[in-house]
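can u pls check wat happens w/ NDP
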Amino acid sequence: MGTIIDGKALSKSIRKELKEEVTRLQEQSNKAPHLVVVLVGEDPASQSYVRAKNRACERIGIKSTIIEKDDSITQTELIDLVESLNRDKAVHGILVQLPLPDHIDDNTIIDTINQSKDVDGFHPLNIAALQIGTPGVLPATPKGIMTMLESVGVELKGKKALVVGRSNIVGKPVAQLLLRQHATVTIAHSRTQDLKKECLEADVLIAAAGRAKMITGDMIKPGATVIDVGVNRVDDKLIGDVDFEAAKEKAAHITPVPGGVGPMTIASLLQNTVECFMNIENLK
Ligand code: NDP
């Protein structure tokens, strides 16, 4: 039976270290990192994500402000708001909670955020930095996944990694990060012909498709490391993309849902906020 990679515990230890770091930086600069989260509309899931991020910030000494806007806000008004936050020297991180209402183009808003305050790492310049391998803000979920792999000492060099899903926020960036660590990376998606065959070859399997239990036990290579990014609500329960009970019998390491990638995404967001603060304020 495989070892469970406990994202909750790892996230807790990262947040503890960050809290000490924030205290030190505050003593050094007399300033605290400040994250502004912009929430448009009343989507309950978005509201709960934003509240969770806010609480996590406050607990480690990051000032967090939520700006709530009615979904009647126009794209121009939202751009103006983001630009004013870009100019505000007391703001170190800007996060616009996605998805935005249909009349607003997500990409246009992301493009407006100053690259150095883009704590989500979604700005095209940060994505370009990720591709090229130059310094930039890494997207939170892929960064958290890499931290988890590192925490259990998974060897990536020369290993076969399969990423199931090719979204801009998870699949593509995590594939880039695996490549950076010298894995041989395959990306599967909804048109992939023989997913089971691809999975069975994977030493490291990252499931990020958003399909409950689509990766069954017989798709896991014995001894593989399995990272389950999926969050699917089924009968009021959160279920991953991997059939955890069956897969843990085959895997060497596996993440649970909940308590795996989710808490690591938050920890990485906090790390990004502190990183943006240090860069903007020129702190070490
Ligand atoms: P998207 O819906 O943007 O992307 C899903 C990807 O999975 C697409 O590339 C799609 O392929 C692929 N896919 C869908 N069905 C299949 C299938 N049957 N076989 C192979 N590939 C398939 O999702 P996200 O990347 O935003 O999120 C993925 C999951 O991760 C979701 O459950 C989401 O809730 C969760 N998530 C969790 C986070 C966390 O912190 N724990 C953070 C972010 C996301 P195609 O491109 O061909 O359509």
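The longest helix spans residues 7-29.
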